[in-house]
Amino acid sequence: MAKGTTIRDVAARAGVSISTVSRVLNGFTSIAPDTSERVRDAIEALGFRPNRLGRSLKAARTHTIGVLVPSLRNPVFADCVAGIQIACAVAGYSVLIASSDYDAERERAAVETFLSHQVEGLILTVADADDSRCLDALDEAEAPYVLVYNQPCGPRPFVSVDNVAAARAMVERIVALGHRRVGMVAGRFLQSDRSRLRHEGYRAALADAGLPSGPLVEVDFADTRLAQHLAHHMTTADPPTALFGSNDMVALAVIRALRDLGLSVPDDVSVTGFDGVEIGALVSPSLATLVQPSRALGEAAFARLLDQLAGNPAGEPSLLAFTFRPGESLGPAPTRAQPQRGHAAC
Amino acid sequence: MAKGTTIRDVAARAGVSISTVSRVLNGFTSIAPDTSERVRDAIEALGFRPNRLGRSLKAARTHTIGVLVPSLRNPVFADCVAGIQIACAVAGYSVLIASSDYDAERERAAVETFLSHQVEGLILTVADADDSRCLDALDEAEAPYVLVYNQPCGPRPFVSVDNVAAARAMVERIVALGHRRVGMVAGRFLQSDRSRLRHEGYRAALADAGLPSGPLVEVDFADTRLAQHLAHHMTTADPPTALFGSNDMVALAVIRALRDLGLSVPDDVSVTGFDGVEIGALVSPSLATLVQPSRALGEAAFARLLDQLAGNPAGEPSLLAFTFRPGESLGPAPTRAQPQRGHAAC
DNA sequence: AATGTTCATGAAAACGTTTTCAACCCGTCA
DNA sequence: TGACGGGTTGAAAACGTTTTCATGAACATT
Fold first, then answer.
1. Angstrom distance (rounded) from CA B177 to CA B199
2. Which domains does chain B have, with CATH numbers?
3. Nearest C-alpha of chain A: how many angstroms from B167?
4. Under 8 Å CB-to-CB from B318, ≥6 apart: which residues?
5. Residue A243 phi/psi, 5° resolution?
6. CB-strand contact A57/D, under 7 Å
7. B268 has pLDDT over 60
8. Which of B38, B151, B236, B257 has the fewest CB atoms within 10 Å, i.e. the most exposed one?
9. Of B109, B112, B284, Cβ closest to residue A285
10. pLDDT for B52 beyond 70
11. How confident is the model at residue A284, as a pLDDT?
12. Which residue places its CA closest to the C1' of nucleotide D7?
């Protein structure tokens, strides 16, 4: 296709009008068999590829959605996007993608761009689904969207697991193994409402068990000095025997940091994650975690969006089931006889 | 913006023609200050957002690129896409994304879709850059593109590391540690020309050292029965003492499989990877690997594409530097006294 | 006072489609 | 034979922009 073959060229070559070409392209009305064939030949010969800009402009349908996630570098989002892609490919939708890096301003910018592209809908994970300028913008523009991973209190459509219940389930398992002092290492609450909700579940589970909340360490998502932060809490008189990571990436970093501190997982400290990224099962010690069905979440989000596009009302809450995945990183609480210290020498 | 505010509405409200609105929007020609302000007010009041379809159609510029990778679930690609996204955001480009799942037919389909969207260029990783229908299609359409990770023999523009040299460097380090029998676990050659090139480097390094090539295990990317395949090779009379994985995901799976076989890494068998995905540094044993600058590759690919779009000629080869990252998975060859067997009992 | 020059603006064409409307050709039915 | 109807087709409008061209006004130059 020599850089700009248009429907007009096809029409000329086939000796018909552009209307006819358009018709064989979209094929709803009846056309004479030989005409159809001539047109098809011309299309083939010229390597004609319809220009979606023209088509979309006229038809007011782009068959394109926008997907916004905090970062593709967290496998949980990459997996979800993969799910979305699969569903989109099947349904004939294209995907515009952007990452916010957990930043509200970049969320805004991305949404703005998506809207100018006339996407038919959006799937997104935002920092805070109950207080989000970009979601306000979407509401005002009356643009269909579905949140994924976010679990707002408000009426916004979302697909996720029940974060509070899931975190609670996780912590209950920790407690059941005899741990009495359980800390949490969480992604920044301001950057992740999920982190906040999981903390809520964590506290509830501990409260139910009559246990105090352990230390809470809030960390940035790409924090390289995690060991230092942890050291502070692990060298007290009564350090936690288990740490609940608000997501798998955090949990894996925690395990690494503990090892750097000379602590053994799970012999000295147990660590659990949240998300169920595939890699957690491959590492050693394997990561005990709470599995979200990431790919299914993506697919469900898209299905939900299609529903909205079809004009169906919002529908039910869309909470998907989570599961627990056991792993070597979670063991019974160590006997209290000899609390471990951070460094052998002191 | 009430679902369809157009430049015409803005013009009407501001009491000017649409040409004038367009001009303040794009702002190259001079306009009277008060006119400009009135228009700007109208835009603000109506929440007007220019429709890119119209704009792109007329201007023949979409400011959009297409990105095609085998799978976002492999962090090496996710990282690269993240790099592309950063560069795109800076340059004001939008990103259409698709995954091929290592399948040539899906590569075709994705490229076809991208072209119909009138992307200005593409960045892609294909199964085989020297024999690819989808690249042929791009060449024929005269669409600008840059390969990333692929390293074709032919004249196609690419950005990557030198796979052969990098694999060779990796294997030289293995050999330097006393390993005499080095196997390779590789992604399917048909699905990954990188895998093929790395195998080439592996063989060259062994040949240089006067060593025979060890067993080669080709695996699918989502192979769950890796342990079975490996068992076959690890239970011979003279099993390899080191395994070179063609990428980090494979290497991590190998480590896991070896553990399932009752073998210790690195005491019984050393394992190395290729890619340098972040997670490899977090796991235990940490993965010795050859680091590709994935994010930089993405950024460089986009820079290169921009160059092409600006009409600059192809330019130099674009081979980025790789580095070696040590890790616990690679140790000295075990003394040959007592070759390990797969299972304790037999 | 006549003639340029510049500046600000509007009218209209154009981008590549889809879609409405009308027209034509043919055969069928009364 | 004349009206009717279905099956095919074309002409032209429309989608929301950008851009060319033309116009008029204000101003400076002779």
1. 20
2. 7-50 (1.10.260.40), 64-161+294-319 (3.40.50.2300), 163-291 (3.40.50.2300)
3. 23
4. B157, B158, B159, B160, B300, B304
5. -125, 130
6. yes
7. yes
8. B236
9. B284
10. yes
11. 81
12. A30
- pLDDT for B346 equals 39
Considering only the beta carbons, identify the residue of A72, A96, A279 that sits closest to B96: A96
B 50-79, residues with C-beta < 7 Å of strand D: 50-51, 53-55, 57-59
A58-91 per-position pLDDT tens digit: 999 999 999 999 999 999 999 999 999 999 999 9
Tell me which residues of chain B, numbers 220 to 279, contact chain A at a CB-CB cutoff of 8 Å: 252-253, 255-256, 259, 278-279
Round to whole Å and give the CA distance between A154 and A139: 13
CA of A37 to C1' of C12 (A): 38
Closest C-alpha among B250, B293, B239, B297 to residue B273:
B250
Instruction: Tell me the nearest-neighbour CA distance from B114 into chain A, angstroms.
Output: 9
- Structure tokens belonging to residue B286: 């940490």
Q: How confident is the model at residue B264 (pLDDT cuts 50, 70, 90)?
A: very high
CA distances from B157 to B27, B164, B251 (A): 36, 18, 29
- B311 near A CB under 8 A: no
Spatial distance from the CA of B154 to the C1' of C2 (Å): 70
**Would you call B51 an interface residue with chain A, using a CB distance cutoff of 8 Å?**
yes
Residue B341 · residue B235 · CB < 8 Å: yes
pLDDT band, residue B12 (cuts 50/70/90): very high
**How far is B20 from A275, CA to CA, in rounded Å?**
52
User: Of B132, B125, B193, whose CA–CA distance to B159 is shortest?
Assistant: B125
Longest dimension (CA), chain B: 92
Which residues on adjacent β-strands are paired with residue A66? A96, A122
Check B282 against A284: CB less than 8 A apart. Answer: no
Whole-angstrom distance, CA of residue B65 vs CA of residue B62 = 8
Which residue stretches of chain A have pLDDT < 50?
Answer: 2, 338-346
Distance, angstroms, CA B118 to C1' D10? 28
pLDDT tens digits, A279-290? 898 888 899 999
